[in-house]
């Protein structure tokens, strides 16, 4: 059998997360409402990737698999990433693909800054902007081969306009 450190690393990470949750710090904790999500993510942007659980990582890997299938065979792929966070969880899997243009939109300036730091050495073309996702979709006139909306829906202070998002897809887009 092949030995791997991954189960050990996951177990240690889970234990640390568990003890952090059951031993709350004595600090005053601010409760953020949904309409303050951008402020919350701005506060945690520097540590965002360290906080992800195994479940989130597995979900991101599934997103990457579906996205790779969606653009497989395209000479050039244009991807819209709505609420892309730091880019480490999904976009990073496409950094070496010169035929990909990654169009990043996030409502949080600190997340955009983290994304820009993470893509400095990427081979793919990319754009990055800070904008409310609903506002972006209403004003966008481009169409994309694929759209990624990964773990951002629960942070939006309004219902996500799925029909508008679908209208931003090219024919046969995903």
Structure explained in plain terms:
The protein has 174 residues and is of the alpha/beta class. It is 40% helix and 13% strand. It has a 4-stranded parallel beta sheet with strand order 3-2-1-4. Strand 2, helix 5 and strand 3 form a beta-alpha-beta unit. The protein is globular. 24% of the residues are buried. The mean pLDDT is 81.
A few lines on this structure:
The chain has 174 residues and is α/β, with parallel strands linked by helices. It has helices at residues 6-22, 37-44, 48-51, 54-71, 109-118, 133-139, 162-167; strands at residues 77-82, 100-106, 125-130, 146-148.
Q: Topology, please?
A:
Blueprint lengths: L5 H17 L14 H8 L3 H4 L2 H18 L5 E6 L17 E7 L2 H10 L6 E6 L2 H7 L6 E3 L13 H6 L7
For the largest beta sheet, what order do the strands appear in spatially?
3-2-1-4
Protein structure class: alpha/beta
Overall geometry comes to globular
By DSSP (H or I, 4+ residues per run), the number of helices equals 7
Order of helices and strands: HHHHEEHEHEH
| Oligomeric composition of the shown chains | single chain
> What's the number of extended β-strand segments?
4
How would a textbook summarize the main sheet? 4 strands, parallel
Q: How much β-strand is present in the residues?
A: 5-15%
